[in-house]
Each structure stands twice: as C-alpha cells, then as structure tokens.
Amino acid sequence: MDLNEKLSQAVVEGDSELAISLANQVIQRGMNISNAILNGLNAGMRVVSELYAKREYYLPEIIIAADALYAALQVLIPHIKKSIKHKGTVVIGVVRGDIHDIGKNLTKTFLEVSGYKLVDCGRNVKHETFIHALEEHQADVLALSTLMSPTLESIEELVVMVNKMDLRQNLIIIIGGAATSEQFARNLGVIYCPDASKAAAVLDEILSEVNK
C-alpha cells in the first residue's frame, strides 16, 4: 500500500493521528502534495460518502472521517506553492424559517473535500443574505436546504428573487432536504439532490456539461 492509499485509509477509518503522521511523511519525502490531497485524502472521503450512501456509515463516522481529513490538510496546505484551483464557488445555507442544519453541514463537507469552495451562510438565512453572498463571492452554485415543508415557500421566494436578477443567468441552484422532492425542484427549474453524499457528483456532471 503506497502513501496515498494509506492516507485514504486513514480518512476512511477516521484516524486523525495516523493521517497527520502520513501527511508529514508526504512532506518529508518531497512528494506531490496536490496529488496526496486528491488521490489520498479526497479519495478516502469519496469512499466515506459511498459508505454513507449505502447506509454503512452514519453521521458520527462522517464527522470523524472529516476530522482526519482536515487534520492532514492543516499539515499539507501550508506547503503547497501553487494554490489549488477550485471547481467552483458554492453559497450554501438552510433557508429562512428552518434551523435544522445537519444535512447542510454534511453536504458542505462532501463538497469541500471534492474541490469546491464553500461559503456557508448558516441556518434560518434571510433571502437578502443569500443574495449578498452570491454577489460578493461571484458564486457558481446556490445550494439550499430545508427539512420542513412549511419552509418550501422560502425556497420558492428566493428562487423567484434570484431569477429576477442578473445573477441567475450562469447560476446553478441545487436544493435538498427531507421536505424537497424531484417534482418540487422541477417546478422551480432547479436541481434536486436527494442525498448529501451525491451533491459533488451532481455538480461535477452539471459543470462538466457547462464547461464543454
């Protein structure tokens, strides 16, 4: 098993101490750091996301795996001479009226480790806060979450606001959470993501088509 494979396994097992040790070995051996992140740490998190999708891993395992990944990243990132190019910028948050953010936090983690830059607006977010974040960060994606059916109205209102602005032309809007559905998303003209672990794959596919 090479060092990248060991890094991947450390993330899958949620072993922060081992991940840090392996990251230091990457530095000591003069290995390609970007490659270690992509084919080591991120590869491990992809395995974790697959296990989560299959209900073999649950929230505690996700958190522990993410802790191991970020612990290693703290060692590696200061040694990267050239910054990593992000796939895109995602503004994410739980819409106004809802304070449940576990799904949002999971989605954020999966997107970050897949190479996206995340701007987290938090929970119970006002429409104006989302709009400001989209404008300030020139975001490529708006990711909205809600757990409760009454707050679907907040998603509708926000999508209508964004549609009326110049922001909408090149903006991908993706929604998820227990209250949302494929039909609801289709009616709004946005993208539905049924599971946090699938968010990166959904966006990767959309952006690959956009960038052709």
- Categorize the overall geometry: elongated
Looking at the structure, the CATH topology of the largest domain is Rossmann fold
Range of strand content = 5-15%
**Helix content range of the residues, please?**
55-70%
Distance between the termini: 36 Å
H-E string: HHHHEHEHEHEHEH
Break the fold down into its secondary structure elements and pairings:
Blueprint: H1 3-13, H2 16-28, H3 33-53, H4 59-76, E1 89-94, H5 102-113, E2 117-120, H6 127-137, E3 141-145, H7 152-163, E4 172-176, H8 182-188, E5 191-192, H9 199-210
Parallel strand pairs: 1-2, 1-3, 3-4, 4-5
Helix pairs in contact: 1-2, 1-3, 1-4, 2-4, 3-4
Describe the overall structure.
The chain is an alpha/beta fold and 212 residues long. It has two domains: 3-79, Orthogonal Bundle (Methyltransferase, Methionine Synthase (B12-binding Domains), Chain A, domain 1); 89-210, Rossmann fold (3-Layer(aba) Sandwich). The protein is 55% helix and 10% strand. It contains nine helices and five strands. Strands 2-1-3-4-5 form a five-stranded parallel beta sheet, sandwiched between helices. Helix 2 runs parallel beside helix 4. The longest helix is centred in the first third of the chain and has 21 residues, at 33-53. The N and C termini lie far apart (36 Å). The mean pLDDT is 89.
